[in-house]
Amino acid sequence: MVGKNRKRERAVVLFLAMYFSIFISCTGRTAFDKDIRGGIYHTVKKGETLSAIAQAYSLDINFLAEVNHLRDIDKIEAGQILFIPGAEEIKEVKIQTPKAKTKGEIPLTERQKEENERRPVAPTKGEEKKEERTVVTSRKKDDKEEKEELKKAMPPTKVEKEEKKEATIRFLWPIKGKVLVRFGPQPGGMFAKGITIAATNGMPIIASLDGLVIFSGYIKNYGETIILKHEADYATVYSYEGVRFVKVDEKVKRGMKIGVVKKKSSADPTVHFEIRYKNKAFDPLKFLPSQENY
What we know:
The protein is an alpha+beta fold and 294 residues long. The protein has 7 helices and 15 strands.
């Protein structure tokens, strides 16, 4: 039985390889561009989700969905084969055991789970009482001393830990321009995982840090896209309308020119930029220096 399943998987992978080779010869470009040489095929196992697969391979879930033409990130099936760009070997995906559902409970989608993670967690009753006691006992001291003691008494939050890391890593702006779209919730229920910067035709795009190119290709609705992997589990994403100068597996230096903006449509040129830590998007403006002194 196991032998038959393996033969079936090999047959499907061979079919996909033939399909993409024919598609390239006919169009000259796949959905993830001819410059992407690295990648493997992952067969979805029972219990695996697209979010868990993306995390195992250190990829953005929306990016993985785009590459594999998935309309709904919550709908993948066991036996389905996904292309993993930039991967060299099949990795083990952690399967989360679903919690017991109470009567009438509606299961959350992957997108809803991701949004819930960003919401601040309310302190428990015990924590609230502890905070009240701390404030009451320190009222006799002046405001400055009180604030310092409260700050020391409170354990560092996850965000504060990340902000300490940003101080040791100096990111560069990919281009210098006005920020048109900021990180966070947008009108219409959308969520921006990066910032959009106004650009001009012919403007060079530079690498924000030293790194390795793990993706270089064209993505529908994003444009020319470059993803760089950096030290300490950081990654940066650059999407724009123009030309790419780097290829997969190429090493780049901080400040190196990796592309150029070339307007092809009637829309004003822009550059979308993301900073990710352990595959989770953070506000780039908290990592980038002020443009006034840049």
